[in-house]
Amino acid sequence: MKTVDDGKPSDNEELNDTFLAELLNGMPTVLFACHIHENVFKLDNAKRQFEKQFDAFGPAQFVYLPSFRRVRISYESSQEATQAKISLHMTKFLNQAMEIYFAQTTSAENGAPPTTLLPPVAEKQFLISPPASPPVGWEPIHENKPTTNFDLLSSLVELAPGESHELHKATASTPSVVVHVCEDSNQAGKATLVKIPQTRRPGC
Asked: Is the pLDDT of residue 56 over 60?
């Protein structure tokens, strides 16, 4: 950093440092190291040497993904992650070049509104039956008592065998309901039964 004659940094340098600090604060704190040599996942000595490179920029946490030959590195600040990314990208470790990338942050982590579809309002999910997890203050709805049609009951009482009875008179929008009562069932039961012959089996 350049200084003026009195030994203090200039105003332009202070503005640049402030702008750089704000820019780095918006960067992710997580890196992904790709194309890592397989010995890093198998040998403890190679793993310690690998972690030593990244610990030089600040305390870091490592998550090894051997199936993808990748390592997830988490720093406490975005400044440390940015310095490690710039310094170690495409450097060789065990004669193999490493590719360092920032982890993609989600919109929720950035404070931006979510872009996915939100669930429906909770009030529309509760019907008469109790839900799986009733909310606080939820009470079941009591069903109304059944209605009694006295006109229909009186018409049923007046039914007599062999006569027709109009239970419901016709209106401009509904038809009439007429019941024809059958004769006594005892007389109908005296009819002779007709025996149905059994069908012969094929080949008999």
From this structure: yes
Q: Please provide residue 53's backbone torsions phi and psi, each rounded to the nearest 5 degrees.
A: -65, -40
Residue 4 has a CB neighbour count (10 Å cut-off) of 10
Distance CA 126, CA 159 (A): 46
Which residues have CB under 8 Å from 166's CB, separation 6+? 155, 176, 177, 178
Tell me, what DSSP letter sits at residue 92?
Answer: B
Express each pLDDT in 118-175 by its tens digit. Answer: 776 665 555 556 556 767 777 777 767 777 778 777 777 777 777 777 777 788 888 8
Q: Alpha-carbon distance 125 to 26, whole Å?
A: 39
Helix (H) or strand (E) holding 87: helix 78-88
What pLDDT is attached to residue 179? 79
Residue 54 buriedness (CB in 10 A; 0-12 / 13-18 / 19+)? buried
Q: Are 31 and 103 in contact (CB under 8 A)?
A: yes
The end-to-end CA distance of the chain, in Å, is 114
Classify the C-alpha dihedral 150-151-154-156 as positive or negative.
negative
Beta strands in 78-163 (DSSP E): 99-102
| C-alpha atoms less than 13 angstroms from C-alpha of 62 in its C-beta half-sphere | 19
**CB burial class (10 A; 0-12, 13-18, 19+) of residue 55?**
middle
